[in-house]
Write a structure and sequence with these properties.
This protein is α+β, with helices and mostly antiparallel strands. It has 4 helices and 6 strands. The protein has 2 domains: 2-68, Arc Repressor Mutant, subunit A; 75-121, Ferric-uptake regulator, C-terminal dimerisarion domain (Dna Ligase, domain 1, 2-Layer Sandwich), CATH 3.30.1490.190. The strands form 2 sheets. A 3-stranded antiparallel β-sheet has the order 1-3-2. Strands 5-4-6 form a 3-stranded mixed β-sheet, with no helix packed on it. A hairpin with a 5-residue loop joins strand 4 (75-79) and strand 5. It is globular. One zinc ion is lined by residues 54, 57, 105-106.
Length: 122
């Protein structure tokens, strides 16, 4: 009956994901589902599977893995002097297509430089 339990757990996770914000972490999902007896390993495995099926996308934000249901870009500007991280919305990513032959799915660009307040200090 292990399979049945697995199917039920998947359904529970799916439902929680459908109710969360567009961006979420595995820990967030786990904290909402642990009361139902679903383990963190199951959550990880399920998210991995969804990612493989391209139902969700993943980004790295502040050393944490961030999942997204819809958004396909998650980019940062990081100040080299103070480490401040700013999120950048890239709404036009089509120009990237000319650099690759592969099908483009999601995009994460990390830009580095000097932020406004560090510029003033200089
Ligand atoms: Zn993707
Ligand atoms: Zn981020
Ligand atoms: Zn700075």
């Amino acid at each position: 009956m292990a399979e049945k339990r697995e199917t039920r757990q998947k359904k529970e996770i799916e439902e929680i994901i459908s109710k969360t914000n567009n961006l979420f972490t595995s820990e967030e999902i786990y904290s909402k589902i642990k009361s139902k007896g679903v383990g963190i390993a199951t959550v990880y495995r399920f998210l991995k599977e969804m990612e493989k099926n391209r139902e969700i996308h993943s980004f790295v934000c502040d050393r944490k893995k961030l999942y997204s249901k819809k958004e396909i870009t998650h980019s940062h500007f990081v100040c080299e002097s103070c480490g401040t991280r700013k999120h950048i919305i890239l709404d036009k990513i089509d120009f990237l297509k000319k650099y690759i032959d592969e099908d483009l799915c999601h995009v994460q660009i990390e830009l580095s430089g000097v932020c406004e307040s560090c510029k003033k200090k200089e």
